[in-house]
Amino acid sequence: MKQLISLCVEHHQQLYPWGSPCALLPFRKSASPPKSITFDELMAAARNLTDLTLAHEIAVNANFCIKDEDLPRNSLAGTVKQIVHKAFWDHLESELNEDPPEYEHAIKLFEEIKEILLSFLTPGANRIQNQICEVLDTDLIRQQAEHNAVDIHGLANYIINTMGKLCAPIRDNDIKQLKATDNIVELLRQIFRVLDLMKVDMANYTIQNLRPYLQRHLVDYERTKFQEILEETPSALDLTTEWIKESIEDELSSVSDESSSSPGADSSSKPIISPTLVLNNGYLKLLQWDYRKTIPETLITDEVRLQELREKLNQLKIIACVCLITNNTVGAAIVDVPDFAEQLKRISLPLLEGMNKKTFDLKEALNAIGVQVCSKVNRSLTERGLPTLNEEMQSNLMGQIAHIVEENNPVSSLIDKRIQFFMRNFLALPSFQKCMPTMPGGLSVIQTEMEFLGSQYASIVNFNKQVYGPFYANILRKLLFPEAPMGKAETETPTN
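^ that's the sequence the OP posted. Answer follows.
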């Protein structure tokens, strides 16, 4: 397992020399007083975090793969890269055009190509390994260079033929193009380009083979890795502790409100709070999380998925609001129209695409939806020989739709509570139970999408509980029962 993960990380770092995205994940050090941490400890924790994040992504995301993405040409880094590469290849060309040719830089390239080709070989491929080492023996090539007897085109042809044997079928056209290239400098440049593509192919092949094994052992692997991070950086649960603490305060407030409204309740007794409810309340908060804030450390590996869920739920909430407002405004005239709510959904969805982007203007989108809804309603009424909406009703309908975005909007608040209620019921289901919770009123138009997102959400939460349950148990014990002795994370995981 460790060797396979290291191989993926190595490919990842080779393809992203400016830094792995995993390594840039937020990592919080102690506040006050700060704990002294050495550079080696910090780097060890960062490596563990990179391994953990990459392993998690490979296992849970069936579409995860490494892509060959070059730097944008108009970016500073892209421009610098172009200038440096051009200078290098121009210098190599000038050396090879000297009389006699200067081969030192070319020999270094052949040495690098040899190492890359050897990295593609599987254990036991001794014959081709010996052949590569024999043909691309840099000491021998140097001796040939001293006597101006280097067959540089012959070496390049051998490299291309070897690449053809080792590459995936998708690279066959690239190999053909290499064989058709005559200029030796351009040929070497293109060889390195295709070798980079082959590195990507090899990394993705490794990921594909690693995925089933990771899926079988991921819980233990992630828990062990996070324990190593915690030992290197004791503050690695600070944000998680704060997240659970806020959830406890919410539950205490809720229990207090219920007690004050219940006659005869004993206000002096200490409220009993369920750790499971505390955790579930914390998970629900993630659906409304402000992702400009750092997410709890134990949820970093699923941050992108949770953010996407939140954005999709916001989109569905608006669609449900539009349908509810339209039904309430127009009334019985459209209630019996088959699939009318579905038609409103099809109108709204394209206009809400990209609503998570900073440049998206939600007010403008809602105004456009209001216009389209009025047009659809009037067309439906006309088709059935009924009077269309007058100007006042159209203005009222469009105004209500436009006001969905306002804070404390009653329709938006109602739909939001029902979505939260549905998701809370999803978390309350035992993980082995396959049936769906009852869909609250007003959400039937988005039922299919809600059930799909609910399943995704419950899967993320249940897996997170399996991995980090022992860590949560220690935090909950410390916050809820401070008099109890603290110990290491238990091996038992809290259940639903």
